[in-house]
Amino acid sequence: MVEVEVQNFINGVFKHSENLIDSYEPSTGQVWARIPDSDAEDVHDAVLAAKQAFQLWSCMPTQQRSKIMMKIADVLESRLEEFAQAESRDQGKPLSLARSVDIPRAVYNFRFFATSILHSLESSSYLDAVGAVNYTSRMPIGVAGLISPWNLPLYLLTFKIAPAIATGNVVICKPSEMTSVTAWMLCSVFNEAGLPPGVVNMVFGTGPRAGEAIVKNPHIPIISFTGSTATAQHIQEKSAPFCKKLSLELGGKNPALIFKDSDLEQCIPTTVRSTFSNQGEICLCTSRIFVQNEIYKEFLEKFITATRAIKVGDPKENVQMGALISKEHLKKVKGYVDLARKDGATINCGDGVDELDIGEKQEKGYYMRPTIITDVADTSKLMQEEIFGPVVCVVPFATEEEAIARANSVKYGLCATVWAKDVGVVHRVSQKLQVGTVWTNCWLVRDLNMPFGGMKASGIGREGFKESIDFFTEVKTICIKT
């Protein structure tokens, strides 16, 4: 049953679309929303509105922009439960996760950048030999294209919108066609908070139509994208003729390195969370676990026990895992488990081993049990490719040098976790891992003041307070001779 019809949001007004796409509720497998199948004409209309709004918004005093953004955060927070319910239904994640993480983080994104811009400093230099003063000034760039993924819909979209508009830019957003509902709901928050028309525009639809139109539009000089490495390569190719400024936050094949002196009482529950949170559909999730020989057997037994205790089912209930995003994605993830069986690996628990107990209303939903695989080679696709689901490989290692080399033996380099009490091991290993973020004896402890992003095929650029401000502005040097 269709309950929601999403509309494009251009120049502060919701626009009805004739061409619509079905959006499925992952927990039931039923259509619950329809979204616009936007094209280049819709993007063109959004660009016109954004360019007009830029004249006002870019010249607005920083304090006034900050005040409007704080109001956005307040209004969004007042509707937290409504947004959490919608996010859970649209994405399949547990409602408890949307309540405690996704929507609060979206609120925080606006507050963080609203206050950060009040404390930015410029640099200056005085050349006394010639009597000249140089100073810098940061200028907003103009119309930014923001393309966000389906796994953390509002969380990641607002992490792009907030720094972009805080620095005086205007934006055209294209959320994933699979999770567009909360982005559409956010538009009413913008209007209630008094954001001027055209500052934020939402154009919903698919990547090949709406996304490509944004990337190829000559009046959108800057693109921020979060998603797959393959799509990012396409964006680079299509945007190359326009010399656009790009930020690409991409996939990962993230290792956990667990040394023999690790505190397993902390390590195991945290590694369960880092592996299976959000159904394993987070680019930062652990997908390869390297355990030192001395504790490999003990770790594996306890890790399997803890994983089997995960409750999978209706996201509205008291569960730790909900449904995967789509029927196609579920088939892809299960395909890796099938490959493991064909290759002679051991499926210790999960898909095809443990019973999936879900309710009758959920029998058409996209569920699977969290799965642990052992006896797999480093060269296997299971150890090399991003699965992006609740599947993890656990393998033993002997020495520190071996663990580092094997952890680095993939094309990705987003993040890693290191578990050890020996501070020397922690520092040596962290320095040598080819990743953008290393968490030690923890996972997903995020400080937005610090840079975030990946190495190698995991991305280009960084996000965070200074890094996002830098990306969404151009720095100008002004020289005045006295």
Describe the structure.
Helices cover 40% and strands 22% of the residues. It has 482 residues and is an alpha/beta fold. The protein has a seven-stranded mixed sheet, sandwiched between helices. A six-stranded mixed sheet has the order 10-9-8-11-12-22, with helices on both faces. A three-stranded mixed sheet has the order 1-5-4, with helices on one face. Helix 6 (181-193) links the parallel strand 9 and strand 10 (200-202). It is globular and about 70 Å long.
DSSP E strands, number: 23
Query: Pairing-aware structural class of the strands and helices?
Result: alpha/beta
Give the overall shape: globular
The largest β sheet comes out as: 7 strands, mixed
* Radius of gyration based on Cα positions: 23 Å
Count of helical regions: 15
Low-confidence stretches: none
What is the strand content?
A: 15-25%
Mean pLDDT across every amino acid position = 97
* Largest sheet, spatial ordering of strands: 15-16-17-14-13-19-20
Q: Considering DSSP H and I runs of 4 or more, what fraction of the residues is helical?
A: 25-40%
Distance between the termini: 72 Å
Tell me briefly what this model is:
The chain is α/β, with parallel strands linked by helices. Helices cover 40% and strands 22% of the residues.
List its traits.
482 residues, alpha/beta, seven-stranded mixed β-sheet, six-stranded mixed β-sheet
Please give the structural blueprint.
Blueprint lengths: L3 E2 L2 E3 L2 E3 L4 E6 L4 E7 L3 H18 L4 H17 L1 H12 L3 H22 L7 E4 L4 E9 L2 E5 L5 H14 L3 E5 L6 H13 L6 E3 L4 H10 L5 E5 L2 H11 L5 E5 L4 E5 L5 H13 L9 E7 H16 L18 H16 L3 E4 L21 E4 L6 H4 L6 E7 L2 H8 L4 E2 L1 E5 L3 H10 L4 E4 L14 E2 L2 E2 L4 H7 L1 E9 L1
Parallel strand pairs: 1-5, 8-9, 8-11, 9-10, 11-12, 13-14, 13-19, 14-17, 16-17, 19-20
Antiparallel strand pairs: 2-3, 4-5, 6-7, 7-23, 12-22, 15-16, 18-21
